[in-house]
Write a structure and sequence with these properties.
Length: 462
């Protein structure tokens, strides 16, 4: 079950990141400028914004297995249409369809794990799931470059079809159908307000990094966000079962995971954006070389996949998460100080450390969030958590791109060569905010999941 869900997550993540390396080839085939092909990335976000908030409610109404199968079918339909697209508008439509499928595929997959795995085994199972979350974004550019160079960018879409069909067959055999007998009425009005707010935020932040009149459009979109957010909050306060149930934040472990995780994910999104660009523009690496270099981080993640559960069992959530959350600020600082003269082994060791820290802290975030959540509210919690997760990763990419662009405009010519260093440092500072939030965890927080007994540990020390 864990491998099926993690494979779906990897397929969705690889598809998105692999596409970034194929944009020049797409532009050539469609006889358009490369910036115009960025619509294939932004419309995917629109699909996510439209359905991620509703994913948990849809699964409650139609059942996990049925929802997951349909989500994969929608994603595969978008993949097939993308591979056959004769022009850019059709390709953009295909990416929108993929976004609608991906919006349900990943959150519902996580919900399947939460509903079927005992809390005592959740840490180990989530370790496998989080492994793909680390490998996917790093493997995508490598795979995209290879497929585009040897075959065609269209194969980035085609390879999803056999994998998705295999997943549909395995889902029927290994994943049980869990359906709420009396689901609450679907909050259509709330879904509209949420979709408008998320679309405005995602598109606004993405366009804000561009120049010229595009920034005026970005400001207009961002101005819509608080209006729609306030409208949703007022609407949700009058419902017993709103689409995104903000009352879930009263559960302290869930709230801490959302808030601290937001800081960590912003910095993570920044590194995903910055590192390949730094290697290619400043260190002279090719697209394929930069992809292979950054792939060392998932190898570090593989190592910690086997060590993280034991670490949490021995030390508990509070100690391990506080310590591992500091890995990311340290990595950002060392990347800011890194110089090609230090040698490739130093960079590879740094990226391996980054992968190990990522796996450790995200294993904690993605399990303690549900440690104290009542089973009846798992669907609503998954929707809210998945929405926050997607928004923060996107915010991280836009934050890094915005700081990088602003640094080149504001810094004097003699200091503009330090633009990447400044951006890495600021990403690291954002990541450090997670520590004081995590310190609010109790020593025994999530003990039912990790198996850690703080009292026994204290007695052993005495």
């Amino acid at each position: 079950m864990a491998l099926i869900v993690s494979s779906l997550m990897m397929m969705e993540q690889i598809d998105g990141t692999a596409l970034t390396t194929a944009l020049p080839a797409m532009a050539t085939d469609f006889h358009v400028d490369i910036p115009q092909t960025s619509i294939t990335l932004t419309v995917y976000m629109l699909g996510l914004a439209a359905l991620i908030p509703a994913s948990g409610r849809i699964a409650e109404r139609f059942g996990n297995r049925v929802t997951l199968r349909w989500a994969i079918l929608v994603f595969l339909a978008g993949s097939l249409l993308g591979g056959l697209a004769p022009n850019l508008p059709v390709l953009a439509l295909a990416r929108l369809v993929q976004g609608l499928g991906g919006a349900m595929m990943v959150p519902v997959g996580r919900l399947v794990i939460l509903q079927n795995v005992p809390k005592s085994e959740l840490m180990s199972v989530m370790g496998w799931v989080m492994l793909t979350a680390t490998i996917g974004p790093m493997a995508g550019p490598v795979l995209g470059g290879v497929l585009t160079s040897l075959l065609s960018w269209r194969w980035i879409f085609y390879i999803n079809i056999p994998l998705g069909l295999l997943a549909i067959g395995l889902i029927g055999r290994f994943i049980p159908q869990v359906r709420m007998r009396h689901p609450p009425p679907f909050d259509l009005k709330g879904n509209v307000w949420c979709a408008l707010a998320l679309a405005g935020l995602i598109f606004g932040l993405e366009l804000l990094t561009h120049s010229g009149t595009t920034r005026i459009v970005a400001c207009a979109l961002l101005a819509v966000v608080p209006v729609c957010s306030v409208a949703y909050i007022r609407h949700a306060s009058r419902l017993a079962h709103p689409l995104l149930d903000l009352s879930l934040l009263r559960v302290s472990t869930f709230r801490i995971s959302v808030i601290a995780g937001a800081c960590t994910r912003i910095a993570t999104g920044g590194i995903i954006f910055l590192l390949p660009s730094l290697l290619q523009t400043r260190f002279g690496a090719s697209a394929a070389q930069s992809g292979l270099i950054t792939f060392i981080a998932p190898l570090g993640a593989v190592v910690m996949r086997f060590g993280a559960p034991a670490l949490y069992r021995a030390r508990g959530y509070r100690s391990v998460m506080c310590a591992s959350s500091m890995t990311l600020p340290l990595v950002c600082l060392l990347l800011a100080l890194y110089d090609p003269g230090m040698g490739m082994p130093a960079l590879l060791a740094l990226l391996a450390m980054h992968g190990m820290g990522q796996t450790t802290v995200y294993t904690g975030y993605n399990t303690i969030a549900y440690a104290d959540m009542p089973p009846a509210r798992m669907g609503a919690a998954t929707s809210l958590y998945s929405t926050a997760q997607q928004v923060m990763l996107t915010l991280g990419i836009c934050f890094a791109a915005g700081v990088l662009t602003s640094a080149r405009l504001v810094l004097p010519p003699s200091l503009q060569m330090h633009d990447y260093r400044l951006t890495f440092i600021l990403c690291g500072l954002v990541a450090t905010i997670a520590l004081p939030v995590l310190l609010r965890l109790s020593p025994n927080a999530g003990a039912a999941v990790s198996g850690h007994d703080h009292t026994a540990t204290q007695k052993d020390r005495l």
